[in-house]
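Researcher: Here's the sequence for the chain we discussed earlier.
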Amino acid sequence: MLWLLILGVVGMVFAPAMWLRPTARERRQGSLRQVAIEAGASVKLETPPLHGEIDKMAAYRWVYPSQRPGPRFVLVRTERASEALKSFDYDNGWRWRIQPLEPLPSVINARLSRLLTQLPEDACVVESSDKALTLWWEESLEADAFGSLAAPATALRDALQGRPDRPAANLPNSPP
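Model: Thanks. This is the structure I predict for it:
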């Protein structure tokens, strides 16, 4: 009887520690985020730019240099978008929520299209602002597969930088 009491007490001591251990999914996401940071992306959990969305989602950002801002646009996966939105590139599964003010050159448009076809199914928004290129997704990839996503995203960020929608005189902290 004493042994059962001792086992019960030891079990009660170690049970909370077992609950605090990260799950397999949390360990996978942690290694994925670490690989993303090493590849030059920053990762945050934020509310995505989707209509009516209140749950937070992973936002992987490739930052533009402050002297070379990017254009403003938002692309949404067709399943999450309204039918009223214009299709991107002949309905390849994405729709423009916000189009760039100036059309993208065909080379950059091809890079963007290539990136969109390589994204996993849980990627739902690709956004560009004057500060960063952002991918909103549910983090379904394994860490070792992230390189196939990071390389085209970095190449697209490099091609988009220096193409702001607003003239430099209107940007904050720009020289006169």
